[in-house]
Design goal:
Layout (H helix, E strand, L loop, with lengths): L2 H9 L5 H37 L19 H14 L3 E5 L1 H4 L16 H15 L7 E5 L7 E6 L7 H14 L8 H10 L2 E6 L4 H9 L48 H13 L3 E6 L2 E6 L12 H14 L5 E4 H4 L7 H7 L5 E8 L2 H7 L9 H8 L5 H23 L6
Parallel strand pairs: 3-4, 3-5, 5-8, 6-7
Antiparallel strand pairs: 1-2, 6-8
Helix pairs in contact: 2-15, 6-15, 7-15
Length: 419
């Protein structure tokens, strides 16, 4: 087009072909940039969520002879400590001796069964007696003091009969120590580490009862600790559910002790929570396939980040644990007070907390549903709460670790919303 035509087109407000060409060029450039950004975003999302959809099946994690079986607590602790000397990435933290002397003057105690002075005296007597069986409880966490963008505390082995939970934490620690390799877990753990995620694990909170079970297999039904207290009922409870704490019937399988925090295991874990100050708590149990949300002691209350927790849990169920039940623990199971999850949210200041139930045997449940817990024998408890050694053990541990790390990955993605 000649300059006269361009001038005439401008004077008559008619678009020139040059202007049209420029517009098309700009549109093409923007389209290319948009396509590039979409490809980049897709690749990042693929890396972010590939862990959820990949179905690689535990090819290497159990490569060592005898690793697809149950271990004694002594074997677990010895092996993890020996591994730590070879690759000192995750160190052992003894939490018993320090926390057994921790004062609890700032903790609200249950006064529903006695007056204030009697409760204080009862609490002191319980703690004095508990020192008689003090046993070191080990936790494992990063050796360095590097600041973490997301701190996660994973607790296994609260209940003695749920032996598989200690195995899950054992293999997860070995993965963190690079003593076990897995084509799915190992790269993910490296990515999480680079993003500033730190994992702290307690493989066996109820250590002494596991030692008893190692020596006496007939004790396989034991849920409580060596003094007959359910460690997941021994924590302090919020005022709005304190009346539901079982403090009276010592014969109950859920007896929570005569006072909150009467057990050294409880004090040890409280001390660890104070030290680590996690953003996320995962309490690992067996007996069901569930992702349980707070609260344990009320169906009518919800914590601050409940909507985020539900969104994350539903995503995990969709992509990872398709047979898992998701819901409030009080609604899905039953109301219970003095639990670790409720304490973590209400007293320890931990923003997010889940209880993960990682194993159930539906056939055994149907066969034994007519019995109450007090009537079960050792073999029946083993079937209900723990997979058999070999292939089922491998599947259970692998899927449990996949569930844990998937949840950690999703929480890390949303970390900015909880800090």
């Amino acid at each position: 087009m000649s300059s006269d035509n361009v001038k005439r087109a401008r004077e008559t407000n008619e678009p020139s072909s040059i202007d049209s060409d420029k517009k098309w060029i700009r549109v093409c450039i923007l389209a290319v940039i948009g396509l590039f950004l979409l490809v980049l975003l897709a690749s990042q999302l693929s890396e972010q969520y590939s862990f959820h959809t990949t179905r690689v099946r535990y090819p290497l994690i159990f490569r060592e002879s005898g690793e697809n079986r149950y271990h004694t607590i002594a074997d677990i602790e010895r092996k993890i400590r020996n591994d730590n000397f070879l690759n000192p990435f995750y160190c052992e933290h003894s939490i018993s001796h320090q926390t057994s002397k921790t004062t609890t003057k700032d903790v609200a105690w249950d006064h529903s069964t006695a007056d204030e002075e009697s409760t204080r005296r009862n609490k002191k007597d319980e703690q004095d007696q508990s020192q008689q069986y003090l046993r070191t409880i080990s936790a494992f966490g990063p050796c360095s003091d590097t600041e973490r963008t997301l701190r996660v505390l994973i607790v296994c082995g609260q209940h003695g009969r749920e032996r598989i939970t200690t195995e899950v934490c054992y293999h997860l620690v070995r993965l963190l120590q690079l003593q076990e390799q897995d084509p799915l877990f190992t790269p993910l753990l490296q990515r999480l580490s680079l993003r500033g995620v730190g994992l702290w694990l307690v493989p066996a909170m109820n250590t002494q009862i596991f030692e008893q079970m190692d020596e006496y297999p007939e004790y396989a039904c034991l849920r409580k600790n060596i003094r007959g207290v359910d460690l997941n009922r021994n924590f302090d409870s919020p005022s709005w559910c304190r009346k539901r704490v079982e403090r009276a019937d010592e014969n109950s399988v859920e007896f929570g002790g005569h006072a909150a925090h009467s057990e050294v295991e409880t004090l040890a874990l409280i001390g660890l929570m104070d030290r680590v100050q996690p953003h996320l708590l995962l309490n690992i149990h067996s007996g069901a396939r569930s992702i349980l949300l707070p609260y344990d002691c009320s169906v009518s209350r919800m914590p601050e980040h409940y909507s985020l927790m539900v969104r994350i849990a539903n995503s995990i169920r969709k992509h990872v644990c398709t047979d898992c039940t998701v819901g409030s623990s009080a609604l899905t199971l039953y109301e219970s007070a003095g639990t670790l999850m409720d304490y973590a949210l209400e007293f320890a200041g931990i923003p997010l907390a889940y209880t993960l139930e990682v194993y159930s045997d539906e056939k055994a449940e149907k066969k034994l549903r007519h019995k109450n817990e007090m009537q079960l024998n050792a073999d029946e408890c083993k079937r209900l709460f723990n997979p058999s050694e070999g292939t089922v053990y491998e599947e259970t541990v692998w899927e449990a670790i996949r569930l844990i790390l998937s949840l950690v990955e999703r929480v890390q993605y949303h970390a900015k919303n909880i800090n």
